[in-house]
Design brief:
CATH architecture: 3-Layer(aba) Sandwich
Low-confidence stretches: 426-433, 459-474
CATH superfamily: ANL, N-terminal domain
Radius of gyration: 22 Å
Strand order of the largest sheet: 2-1-10-9-11-12-13-14-15
Mean pLDDT: 91
Strand content: 15-25%
Structural class: alpha/beta
Largest sheet: 9 strands, mixed
Distance between the termini: 31 Å
Number of strands: 23
Helix content: 25-40%
CATH class: Alpha Beta
């Protein structure tokens, strides 16, 4: 345990400790049949690191990863991190043109993927492709023996020194995540060790994670929500994780939850709706923590999920530029008796550990008092380093360490945040700011929409439609 006053360990050092601690118990599994203890996981990460060190150029800083959430994708990300390289997880649900733009902007020489997977998602990595399956065939007997020895026997301080982890600093870049927002122009969000690491520490403080926890990993790593919560959180803390490549596959997700006694599910309200319809109730009987984020978590979804599975989803909030978590409601199962109220339905919760929130007037920039509605700004260790090679865009949204979320919100006396809309999602009518979200909700209720929205409100100039905010939210 770290002594008081010591800086937090970088994620790579926490990864080594977490794998050593879980040496003989399940640490990672997936729907492809992979099952790894902490020792086996660390062996595979170290072996992958050895192969990648031979294949990648010594000056190759950023490396593309185009894989669905599996144990293999997690191992590749971890191996690159142990090398001090920057993993750029690319969106496999986007168009070829956008993918090519992201590859060009990150100046990627290699993209680690699978030809079979690329064919399935109808994308092409071109000559940059590094076949993940082919990389496995380059493992030598020495790689395997060395990985097993270092994963099991080498003292941690010596292993950290051998891997150069003592040279990694909190402000070193860990990843770049591309987000296009409403403009359709991809922006690379540069996240540091401390950006993601502070989020991981905050999640642990919120949920009091333990070796009894098993997380369902259904979110893609190209999204900051999945990257932080289902990749780095289980890699560096006590819980195990089980991955599935398709979050819409309610039956397989349910089977994995049942077989591995899953306790934690991070998802979107859209996926929660799918599970309400397609997942047998008994499959989620061990769930204790369910979060619905990236979209507004409606009462209809919360009620439906609780009625079917006996656990009520909690709402959280964030932005890719904030690594991504900003605020969360603590689930009842993780509330510590005697502590102040840490959940309030209808809000997105309290700011996480280390974060501060303020509300400013949309016209004057003046900070507003409690209860008044305005622009939401966030400061803390999770504020991104900036947009890749775009200091002009960074300067627009980050001022004196505060990030402008673009969301319209208000704070109550206890600090709970209520999101009321986006700045780009308001129209001025008769001198009054009318939120599109409120109009949409009224129209969809009148039309009887029960599974998503039937109506989206836009401005005459073609303002952003619902679900496509300027900053992608987790």
């Amino acid at each position: 345990m770290q002594s008081t006053g010591e800086p937090p360990l970088v994620l790579q050092r926490r990864l080594l400790r977490a794998c050593r601690s879980a040496a003989g118990r399940l640490k990672m599994a997936d729907s492809l049949g992979t099952r790894l203890t902490g020792r086996q996981l660390l062996m595979r990460i170290l072996a992958a690191r050895s192969v990648l060190a031979r294949v990648l150029g010594p000056d190759e800083r950023m490396v593309g990863v185009l894989l669905p959430p599996t144990a293999g994708a997690a191992i590749v990300n971890a191996a690159l991190a142990l090398m001090g390289r920057v993993a750029v997880n690319l969106n496999y649900t986007t168009s070829q043109a956008i993918l090519d733009t992201c590859i060009e902007r990150a100046r990627l020489r290699h993209v680690i993927s699978s030809p079979a997977f690329l064919a399935r998602v109808k994308l092409d990595a071109g000559p940059r492709l590094l076949d993940a399956g082919g990389l496995r065939t380059q493992l030598t007997a020495f790689d395997k023996v060395a990985a097993a020895f270092h994963a099991t026997v080498t003292p941690l301080p010596l292993l950290e020194n051998m891997l150069g982890l003592d040279r990694i600093r909190p402000d070193d870049v860990l990843t770049v995540i591309f987000t296009s927002g409403s403009t359709g122009d991809p922006k690379g969000v540069v996240l540091t060790q401390e950006n993601v690491g502070s989020n991981v520490r905050a999640i642990d403080a919120l949920l009091h994670l333990s070796t009894a926890d098993v997380a369902l990993g259904v979110l893609p790593f190209f999204h900051s929500y999945g990257y932080t919560t289902t990749l780095w959180t289980p890699l560096t803390l006590d819980p195990a994780v089980v991955y599935h490549t398709d979050p819409r596959d309610g039956q397989t997700v349910g089977r994995l939850a049942r077989e591995h006694h899953a306790t934690i599910l991070m998802a979107t309200p859209t996926f929660l709706r799918i599970y309400i319809r397609r997942t047998p109730a008994e499959d989620f009987s061990t769930l204790e923590v369910v979060f619905g984020a990236a979209e507004k978590l409606t009462q209809e979804v919360s009620d439906g999920f609780e009625k079917r599975f006996g656990v009520r989803p909690s709402e959280a909030y964030g932005a890719t530029e904030l690594a991504p978590l900003v605020a969360a409601n603590v689930p009842p199962s993780r509330h510590v008796p005697g502590r102040p109220v840490d959940a309030r339905e209808g809000t997105v919760g309290l700011p996480i550990l280390g974060c501060r929130a303020r509300i400013t007037d949309r016209d004057t920039g003046r900070e507003l008092p409690v209860g008044q509605e305005g622009l939401l700004w966030i400061a803390g260790p999770n504020v991104m380093q900036g947009y890749l090679d775009r200091p002009d865009l960074t300067a627009r949204v980050v001022q004196d360490g505060w990030y402008c979320t673009g969301d319209v919100a208000k704070l109550d006396a206890e600090g709970f945040i209520t999101i009321t809309g986006r700045e780009s999602r308001f129209s001025k009518i008769g001198g009054e700011m009318v939120p599109h979200l409120a109009v949409e909700e009224a129209l969809n209720a009148e039309l009887g929409a029960v599974d998503g929205s039937l109506v989206a409100v836009v401005t005459e100039e073609g303002g952003a439609a619902r679900g496509v905010p300027p900053a992608d939210r987790p």
